[in-house]
Structure formats: structure tokens, C-alpha cells
Design goal:
Layout (H helix, E strand, L loop, with lengths): L1 H12 L3 H22 L2 H4 L5 H26 L3 H37 L4
Keywords: Membrane, Transmembrane, Transmembrane helix
Organism: Sterrhoptilus dennistouni
InterPro entries: Marvel, MARVEL-CKLF_proteins
Length: 119
Amino acid sequence: LVALAALICFVASGAHEAYTALAGMETVITVLFLLLYLLRLDARMRCLFWPLADIFNSVVAALFLLVVGLFAVIIKTNKGTLAGGVLGLILLVLCLIDVVLLCKKIRLDKARGRSAPAK
């Protein structure tokens, strides 16, 4: 929702296309990962380790959001761009929290797999 709000702010303010493209891309990718996990497609498509793909997405998004969020806040051509930049920085923090939680989850799943008895 934060990515969608940032996208709306950037579009409404007529901000630079790069800001809008990044917010739109992150919104779409987040919705796709949400659908992947909600529909349990990650269990069906085992060709990729999905939590690691989610971590990679969050790290790359965090790097891009850092640059775009800081540029939008520093330049602040209007209030919409400033609001989008602040929402982008909030989204950056949420991406970093996602990375930490997913890393803990992977570590816990790996630890459980070792201690589980063989079948």
C-alpha cells in the first residue's frame, strides 16, 4: 500500500518519470509476490527458491528507493513529490525489515530441517 501511495503521489504531482517508474515497478512486483504467496504458487513452482528471490528484490528495491527517495525529498519540486519521497523512504525501511525477517525465516527453516528426524 505504501508503494501504491508513493506511485499516486508521484503521478499526481507530475514528478520525474524515473520516480513514477520506480514506484510503479515496486508496486507491481510486490503485488506479484503477494499473489505468489497467497495462492501458494511458491510450493508448486520449486524451480526457484522464492524467499531468496524476495530478499534479492527487497535489497535491490531498497537501493533504488534510497536514491529516488533522497532525490525527491531534496529537490521537492512540489508537495506531491515531497510526499512521494517520504513514502519512498518509508518503503525503504519496510524493504529492509522484510529482508531481516526473511533471513531469520530462512535460518529457522534450515535449523528445523537439520534437527528433524529422517523419514
